[in-house]
Request: fold
Amino acid sequence: MNLANRITLVRIFLVPIVTFFLLVRLELEPLTIGNYSISYNQVFALILFIIAASTDGLDGYIARKRKIVTNLGKLLDPLADKLLMAAVLISLVEMGKLGAWVAIIIISREWAVTGLRQVALMEGQIIAASQWGKWKTAVQITMIIVLLLNNFPFNFIDLRIDLYTVWASVLITVYSGVDYFVKNKNLIPVSD
Reply:
């Protein structure tokens, strides 16, 4: 197994660990700065999430740079991304930090585009990540980080960046999903 695939596997193995820290409460006093408070669970989960999210670009870069792109990597990389995002989004819903409707929209779009990519593969085509898809990922990661930080440091100036990032994530997620389907409508059979 090559280095890129090992990095992808690390991302998959981090999913249950991040989820553990988000959902299991450790009996520790929260970290407090003035009137701002954050649990150590969230700090650990945030650090691990940032590490896991940063490996997404790293594994692809290494695979392309070293010319070690494999079918296993093509399968595992998007799977690792979907597992990480879905687990964290569902955890944020459970924690009361994110509306379930937001998680449903984001997860549904991810699996719909994955399904479209599978159809394309069966037709011998590859749907590359679009620029909108890359922006969507960046905005979603930003949203998760802001939510895990409890809107720090913007809460000190009463600026709801958390709400802005949630709405930005929803809008760009929907737009990028529609964009994939419009650009690849030839793959969707309209009749037998």
In short: The chain has a mean pLDDT of 88. The two ends are 42 Å apart (CA to CA).
